[in-house]
Amino acid sequence: MIKEQIVVTSAQMRDIEGRIFAGGMPVAALMEKVAGLISNRLKSIIPKDRTIGILVGPGHNGGDALVVARELHFQGYQVWIYQPFPKLKELTSQHLQYAQSLGIPCYQELAELPSCDFLIDGLFGFGLEREITGNIAATINHFNDWNCQIFSIDLPSGLHTDTGEVLGTAIRATHTFCLGLWKQGLLQEQALEYIGKAELIDFDIPLADIHVILGEVPKIKRITKTTVFNTLSLPLPPTTHKYKSGHLLLICGSKRYAGGAILTGLGARASGVGMLSIAVPESIKPLLVSHLPEALIIGCPETETGAISDLQLPPKTDLSSFSAIACGPGLTTDATPIVEQVINSEVPLILDADGLNILAQLGTIPTLRKRQNTTILTPHTGEFHRLFPDINYQDRVKAVQTAALQTGAVVLLKGARIAISNPEGVVWINPESTPALARGGSGDVLTGLMGGILARVVNKQVNIEDVVAAASWWHSQGGILAAKERTELGVDAFTLTQYLMRVLVDM
Ligand SMILES: NC(=O)C1=CN([C@@H]2O[C@H](COP(=O)(O)OP(=O)(O)OC[C@H]3O[C@@H](n4cnc5c(N)ncnc54)[C@H](O)[C@@H]3O)[C@@H](O)[C@H]2O)[C@H](O)CC1
Ligand SMILES: [K+]
């Protein structure tokens, strides 16, 4: 477990820091260490000739900011301090006194403040415990209106540490330096527009202290490149061969949605899966063959609406011949018998798109309760609501945990920050993505990619949620890479499939 993967609540952070102090580390020394690390980062970002305004709150977040103010002052930056609170914590008050004794200008009134190029937000950190109101709220709105770059210490002031919701109002940071361990609120969708670019400032919290508070396996984890590399079991063993790299069956497409089948197939191709079979209605088989010559395209009988009516597998083949099945993209909801058939099979299964809509029509929980084998659901919010009408998906972490618990499946909830839970409530959050992926077809690519990874590693000792997390990370990194080279408007789903391989090369 690496620190970048660990996610904590404010209570857990309080307990972890409590163990550090109980171990003998003086609070002031920790504050000095933390603020020194922040100052070094700021020195590498802010040119020397710029002016910096330091916003100081009543608690230790303010204390951090005052140490930063002193250190930047000694480095020769022009610094001023804004400190509107009547009562400060003892340590914060001492740092303010010292800053003033150094002659750093300190202001209590907004009207007196000189303009500045950068603001350092040390108003509130994980100690924020209630709605911000009155003139503090007005102050935060005032600084947001300055439209200058704001660096927030630990969290943008005003964000709830655990849920990421805005408590009254919040600083819109350009950059957030999260201290020690990632706060859960920074990984919630609703917080994204306030966080700006987030980075972790590691101040050497002993892993032993973390394990005592969080237990061996933290409940909520942040997907990182390490997760993905471990799960993809790269590099491949030299003695591998196509039958050892899994055999994936995709069941997708219809006369109306042939493109969905092609994109799903291209996503699977990018996964490096050994063998790929794609069951589609007979009428679009030639299309699939032309796009995916390496895949075994199975033309199936179709309904008069052009949906698969019967899974006619090749001779001596049945569903158990496959390492994994991914079913749903482009199926339309006229393929209900097919979805029932795969749900009743014993094969590890990913359901997406119309596979999920049909599952919802069949009755999500009673239908899945019958399945013993691995099941993965990959809904976007609309599909999630159809599957689980009684679950409020505003708190996405709780929503996926509840859905996974109720179904026994691993559930991925799509969005700007994908959340994944296994039935035991262990959650992965994908910390990075790009709006470029919010386009038709990119979900089909994810399904194919995920199916290919699952087929490749399902017989190895991997956690299914790690496979889903790896696919989600790989998919979003492909989108980020493509957006960097082609702008956020240039990442159609087909282009995305071309960038997926680039991701691993650049890792
Ligand atoms: N724990 C440590 O020793 C270290 C913490 N780090 C930094 O300190 C903050 C946490 O500090 P804490 O004093 O607990 O709280 P905050 O500084 O976040 O400030 C909250 C402060 O303000 C009061 N308050 C809460 N809500 C409101 C409100 N709505 N309106 C007005 N005032 C409010 C509350 O009473 C608190 O006193 C952490 O984020 C780090 O930045 C160091 O980095 C390491 C050592
Ligand atoms: K802050």
TrEMBL record:
<feature type="binding site">
    <location>
        <position position="121"/>
    </location>
    <ligand>
        <name>K(+)</name>
    </ligand>
</feature>
<comment type="function">
    <text>Catalyzes the epimerization of the S- and R-forms of NAD(P)HX, a damaged form of NAD(P)H that is a result of enzymatic or heat-dependent hydration. This is a prerequisite for the S-specific NAD(P)H-hydrate dehydratase to allow the repair of both epimers of NAD(P)HX.</text>
</comment>
<feature type="domain" description="YjeF N-terminal">
    <location>
        <begin position="13"/>
        <end position="211"/>
    </location>
</feature>
<comment type="function">
    <text>Bifunctional enzyme that catalyzes the epimerization of the S- and R-forms of NAD(P)HX and the dehydration of the S-form of NAD(P)HX at the expense of ADP, which is converted to AMP. This allows the repair of both epimers of NAD(P)HX, a damaged form of NAD(P)H that is a result of enzymatic or heat-dependent hydration.</text>
</comment>
<comment type="similarity">
    <text>Belongs to the NnrE/AIBP family.</text>
</comment>
<feature type="binding site">
    <location>
        <position position="443"/>
    </location>
    <ligand>
        <name>AMP</name>
    </ligand>
</feature>
<dbReference type="InterPro" id="IPR004443">
    <property type="entry name" value="YjeF_N_dom"/>
</dbReference>
<dbReference type="InterPro" id="IPR017953">
    <property type="entry name" value="Carbohydrate_kinase_pred_CS"/>
</dbReference>
<dbReference type="InterPro" id="IPR036652">
    <property type="entry name" value="YjeF_N_dom_sf"/>
</dbReference>
<dbReference type="InterPro" id="IPR000631">
    <property type="entry name" value="CARKD"/>
</dbReference>
<keyword id="KW-0520">NAD</keyword>
<dbReference type="InterPro" id="IPR029056">
    <property type="entry name" value="Ribokinase-like"/>
</dbReference>
<dbReference type="InterPro" id="IPR030677">
    <property type="entry name" value="Nnr"/>
</dbReference>
<feature type="binding site">
    <location>
        <begin position="60"/>
        <end position="64"/>
    </location>
    <ligand>
        <name>(6S)-NADPHX</name>
    </ligand>
</feature>
<keyword id="KW-0456">Lyase</keyword>
<dbReference type="Pfam" id="PF01256">
    <property type="entry name" value="Carb_kinase"/>
</dbReference>
<keyword id="KW-0479">Metal-binding</keyword>
<protein>
    <recommendedName>
        <fullName>Bifunctional NAD(P)H-hydrate repair enzyme</fullName>
        <ecNumber>4.2.1.136</ecNumber>
        <ecNumber>5.1.99.6</ecNumber>
    </recommendedName>
</protein>
<feature type="binding site">
    <location>
        <begin position="125"/>
        <end position="131"/>
    </location>
    <ligand>
        <name>(6S)-NADPHX</name>
    </ligand>
</feature>
<keyword id="KW-0511">Multifunctional enzyme</keyword>
<feature type="domain" description="YjeF C-terminal">
    <location>
        <begin position="225"/>
        <end position="507"/>
    </location>
</feature>
<keyword id="KW-0547">Nucleotide-binding</keyword>
<feature type="binding site">
    <location>
        <position position="157"/>
    </location>
    <ligand>
        <name>K(+)</name>
    </ligand>
</feature>
<keyword id="KW-0630">Potassium</keyword>
<keyword id="KW-0067">ATP-binding</keyword>
<feature type="binding site">
    <location>
        <position position="154"/>
    </location>
    <ligand>
        <name>(6S)-NADPHX</name>
    </ligand>
</feature>
<feature type="binding site">
    <location>
        <position position="444"/>
    </location>
    <ligand>
        <name>(6S)-NADPHX</name>
    </ligand>
</feature>
<feature type="binding site">
    <location>
        <position position="330"/>
    </location>
    <ligand>
        <name>(6S)-NADPHX</name>
    </ligand>
</feature>
<feature type="binding site">
    <location>
        <position position="380"/>
    </location>
    <ligand>
        <name>(6S)-NADPHX</name>
    </ligand>
</feature>
<keyword id="KW-0521">NADP</keyword>
<keyword id="KW-0413">Isomerase</keyword>
<comment type="subunit">
    <text>Homotetramer.</text>
</comment>
<feature type="binding site">
    <location>
        <position position="61"/>
    </location>
    <ligand>
        <name>K(+)</name>
    </ligand>
</feature>
<comment type="similarity">
    <text>In the N-terminal section; belongs to the NnrE/AIBP family.</text>
</comment>
<dbReference type="Pfam" id="PF03853">
    <property type="entry name" value="YjeF_N"/>
</dbReference>
